[in-house]
Amino acid sequence: MSEIEISNIQLYPEEALAALDRLEHIATIALAGRAHTVEKALHLVPNRHAVFSGTFEGAPVVFRLALSDKARETSAREWAELSRVWPYMSEPPLTVQQPLFFDEATGLTVTALAKGEGLLTALWRLAPQDRAVPIALSADWLRKYTAPSEEWRETNRRPWRKWAEQAVGKQPHESLADIEGRIFHRMKKLHRQIDFPEWRVALAHGDFHLNNLFWNGTGLTGLDLGATNHAPLYKDIARALVHMARRGMLPSGSRRFGVDADAFETFSARFELNDQEKHGYLPYFICFETLIKVEHPKMPQARIDHAMAMSKALLEDLKQIT
Q1: Residue 39: other Cβ atoms inside 10 A
Q2: How many CB atoms lie within 10 A of CB 24?
Q3: Which of 103, 154, 246, 273 shows a CA-CA span of 20 to 30 A to 199?
């Protein structure tokens, strides 16, 4: 039997062992004698998926096994998206994992192992002045990913505002709940101001943050390509910027709409955002991402402090434009 590594797997040891047994059985049948080994558990979400490292025909790979019917449907969409993107994102320095095998009946996916580590993790080891280059490369990665599907469409802002409002009521930390309520008030004002006929959409990543990009020192490999629907491209940008800021990653030492000012400018430049996009749609989705990610009741105080600092700065800049 393969090794179960201590990581987040320690939270679900029995589920991890069950997933391992199931994966080894399914892989033996689905791969039909093709050489493979299952080695270490990397990640597990009960009733959704389990992820293991291993080898496939002599190459290092990642096995991802769906753990429910719904997860199998998700696996099929993710495989279709990875297969769509691979032809134009297979050349370094901006790539995705190579798709190698998929079994629709079981939701077993095999992809090439991405070398390196999550970019956000890597940034903490770099001096602040050395972080700008890989952050700019992350913006380049996202632009390369979205470019073939980008188009202008009629705006549909209402669902985003609705989802943000629902999230505000779920914030368990009183200090954050208060300031997020005020941010949502400004978001509603901004909602009325950005009543423009069109915005840019693209087939979105869906969970674009810097630790879903693996950095090997020279290039980036994107992970978890989960979305198959068009969404405003500002949403993925805002997700990355807010994810950084709420973890205290502020390389420039200054903020714009609560997030790192230089990173804000870098993404704006890479996507050639016009004034309406840069000072209307992007702040709108920074508000959305700030409100939609509700902190766990037991979130460490340091994370709460970072979230407060970002929210206060966001609110002050929103006051200047609403």
Answers
A1: 15
A2: 18
A3: 246
